[in-house]
Design brief:
FAD/NAD(P)-binding domain; eight-stranded mixed beta sheet; 16 helices; 22% strand
C-alpha cells in the first residue's frame, strides 16, 4: 500500500487504476480492501489528509435554506455536534457533520451500530415513497460480513421487553482493534492493516466527474490539491463514496455532457434528503433510575475471545407502526450529568473560567473519587501500558460492569457525576422529494458550486415522535417500572415546540430504484444509464429506518465490492 499526497505529483499527471474510489471513509476503505484482496488495482481518493485540518475542513461548507435556522436549533446543534468533530463549525456546516480525512465520518462518530428491520425494506402504504428494490433476506449475508468489519458480535440477544407495541432493540458499539480504549476509527485501522494493491491519494479534492461523449461511460475524475496542483485519474470503474451531500453535489456539478448533471435526466439527483429525527421524551431522577438502568443499560457479551458491548432500548413493532400509521422509531436511555460534576468544575478552575470558585472547589473535593478514577483511566489509555493488560482489564470490565465502561467510552475516559436518566426518541424520516440537495450560486475555492441544503421535516415525523413517547410511558407503567417525567411537549401534545436538529445521518440523495424516473442508481448501485459509474453509502438508501446507518451502509458496500469484482472478472 502506498499513501501519497497530490502535491507530490507533477502538475496535470494522469493516474491509472482498475477502480477509483472517491472518499476514504468507512465505505470507500471497505470497498477498497474487498477489491484489492481480489487482485484489483485500487486508487482511493481523499480530499483531506491522514487527520482533519482547518483548510480541508473549510471545504465542507454548505448553504442552508431549509430547517436548522432558528436560534434554538443552532444552540442545540452546537451542544450536540460541537465536541464530535475537531474542526466542525455551525457556520461552515449549518447542516450535517462531515470530516475530510482518512477514515471519514469515523473521526467523529460514536461507534453505535444496529441493523435495519425487515419492515424498513418494504413498501408501506402510510409511508410515502417507501420500499427498496432489494429485500431484507438478500442483505442479511452482507450484514454478517459487515459485522466482522466493524468488530461486532453476531449473536442475537434475547427479548427482554414486549409491551404496548414496543419490543427490545439493541445497539452495539464498534470497538477498535488498534486502541482497546477507543471505538473504531477506520483510518487508523486501515493504516494498521496496509492492504496490498491499494494506493491512497490524499489532499485530492474531486472537482469534476467525467463521462464520454454520449454519456454512457465514466471516463475520468479531475482532482485538485489545496495548493492548486491538478491531476486526472482514469479507471475502468469509478465508485463515488463521498457521503450523502458530496455524492449528489459531484453529480450535479459535472455538467460537461449533461447540462442538468450526471444521472439526473428526471431531476432526481439530490432529492429525498433524509436524516433521523430525535427528541427528548422525559427523564428519571437518580433515586428511581436503578431498575431502568439495569434493564435498559449496557450488556456485555463474550464472543470469540472478545467482550462486546450492547445497549438495550425499545423499538416499535411492525404491527404498532401499521396500527398507528407512523414510521419506524425507537427510544433509548442515556445518563445525565449533574450540575456539580467534579470534572466540569475542575476544568473551570484550571482554565480560570469559574464564576463561583468556592462552589467549584467544593464540587472537586466532594468528587475526589471520580477524579481518582479518571486518573486511573488515563494511565490505562497511555500508549506505554501493555496491550495485553489493556485487553484483560477492558474485556473483564465489559463483562462485569458494562454500564461503567459505556460511561468511560462516552466521556473519553473521564467519569462523571450523574443527576438522572434521560429517555430519548429517534425516528425514521419519510422520503420527501422536496427535501433535497441542490447547487448554490456560491462556489468553493476551486470554482465548484457549494451544496445547497433544503432539509424538510414532515408531519409524519412529529406524529411518530409523539406516539412513541406516549407508548413508551404506557409500556413502562404497565410493566410496573419507573415512568419518566414527560417533557411538556409530550404532556401538552405540542409537537410544534420540539427543537429538531440533524443527527449527521445524511441519507437518500442518490436513492436506489428500478427506474431512473424514481431514483439515481439501480439495484447494483450503478448510476442509471452509465455502465461503470457506481455510488456507495447512505445516499443510495430509499428509506432511512430508525437505526444508526453505518452497519447497513457497509453491508451494501461489501455487496457492491462483490459485484465489482465479478464485473472485472467478466471483463
Amino acid at each position: 500500500m502506498r499513501i501519497r499526497r497530490l502535491s507530490e505529483f507533477d502538475d496535470n499527471s494522469i493516474i491509472m487504476a482498475d477502480i477509483v474510489i472517491v472518499g476514504a471513509g468507512p465505505v470507500g476503505l471497505t470497498i477498497a480492501e474487498e477489491c484489492s484482496r481480489a487482485g484489483r488495482k485500487v486508487v482511493v481518493v481523499e480530499s483531506g489528509l491522514e487527520l482533519e485540518s482547518p483548510e480541508h475542513s473549510a471545504l465542507n461548507e454548505v448553504e442552508n435554506v431549509g430547517e436548522l435556522r432558528t436560534e434554538a436549533q443552532i444552540r442545540k446543534r452546537i451542544e450536540f455536534h460541537g465536541s464530535q468533530a475537531k474542526f466542525w463549525s455551525p457556520d461552515v456546516q449549518p447542516y450535517g457533520v462531515r470530516c475530510r480525512g482518512l477514515g471519514g465520518s469515523t473521526h467523529a462518530w460514536a461507534g453505535k451500530s444496529a441493523p435495519f428491520d425487515a419492515l424498513d425494506f418494504q413498501a408501506r402504504s402510510w409511508v410515502p415513497y417507501s420500499g427498496w428494490p432489494v429485500d431484507h433476506e438478500h442483505i442479511v449475508p452482507y450484514l454478517l460480513r459487515a459485522m466482522k468489519v466493524l468488530n461486532l458480535c453476531p449473536k442475537a440477544l434475547p427479548e427482554r421487553f414486549d409491551n404496548e407495541g414496543l419490543r427490545s432493540f439493541y445497539w452495539q458499539f464498534a470497538r477498535s482493534r488498534v486502541d482497546r480504549l477507543d471505538i473504531m476509527r477506520f483510518g487508523r485501522e486501515f493504516l494498521a492493516r496496509r492492504p496490498t494493491n491499494t494506493d491512497v491519494l490524499l489532499d485530492a479534492t474531486v472537482s469534476r466527474v467525467g463521462v464520454n461523449g454520449d454519456g454512457s461511460q465514466f471516463s475520468r475524475i479531475d482532482v485538485v490539491s489545496v495548493g492548486g496542483k491538478r491531476a486526472r485519474i482514469e479507471a475502468t470503474i469509478c465508485v463515488l463514496a463521498a457521503g450523502g451531500i458530496e455524492n449528489a453535489r459531484l453529480l450535479l456539478a459535472s455538467t460537461d455532457v449533461f447540462s442538468q448533471g450526471i444521472g439526473n435526466h428526471y431531476d432526481v439527483v439530490g432529492r429525498f434528503l433524509m436524516d433521523h429525527v430525535a427528541a427528548r421524551v422525559g427523564r428519571i431522577p437518580t433515586d428511581r433510575m436503578a431498575a431502568l438502568t439495569k434493564l435498559f443499560g449496557f450488556y456485555g457479551v463474550h464472543h470469540e475471545n472478545r467482550a462486546h458491548m450492547f445497549a438495550h432500548g425499545l423499538a416499535l413493532t411492525a404491527a404498532a407502526q401499521e396500527r398507528e400509521q407512523i414510521s419506524n422509531a425507537a427510544v433509548f436511555f442515556s445518563t445525565e450529568r449533574a450540575p456539580d460534576d467534579p470534572w466540569v468544575a475542575l476544568k473551570r478552575l484550571l482554565r480560570s473560567r469559574s464564576d463561583n470558585v468556592g462552589r467549584d472547589v467544593l464540587s472537586v473535593a466532594a468528587g475526589s473519587g471520580f477524579i481518582a478514577r479518571g486518573i486511573g483511566m488515563k494511565i490505562l489509555s497511555d500508549h506505554r501500558t501493555p496491550k495485553v493488560f489493556k485487553d484483560l482489564i477492558v474485556n473483564t470490565a465489559i463483562m462485569i460492569s458494562p454500564n461503567l465502561v459505556a460511561d468511560e467510552f462516552q466521556s473519553r475516559g473521564l467519569p462523571h457525576k450523574l443527576s438522572g436518566l434521560r429517555i430519548e426518541a429517534i425516528c425514521e424520516q419519510a422520503p420527501n422529494p422536496a427535501s433535497r440537495v441542490s447547487l448554490s450560486e456560491r462556489k468553493d475555492k476551486f470554482g465548484v458550486p457549494l451544496a445547497k441544503i433544503d432539509w424538510r421535516i414532515s408531519d409524519l415525523e412529529y406524529k411518530t415522535l409523539l406516539r412513541i413517547a406516549e407508548l413508551s410511558h404506557e409500556a413502562l407503567a404497565r410493566a410496573e417500572l419507573p415512568t419518566p417525567k414527560l417533557e411538556p411537549w409530550v404532556t401538552e401534545r405540542r409537537t410544534q415546540d420540539l427543537v429538531i436538529i440533524d443527527m449527521a445521518h445524511t441519507l437518500g440523495t442518490t436513492r436506489m430504484s428500478t427506474s431512473p424516473k424514481t431514483g439515481v442508481v439501480d439495484l447494483h448501485c450503478r448510476v442509471h444509464g452509465i455502465n461503470n459509474l457506481y455510488i456507495a453509502g447512505g445516499s443510495v438508501f430509499p428509506t432511512s429506518g430508525h437505526a444508526n446507518p453505518t452497519l447497513t451502509i457497509l453491508a451494501l458496500a461489501i455487496r457492491l465490492a462483490d459485484h465489482l469484482n465479478s464485473e472485472l472478472e467478466r471483463g
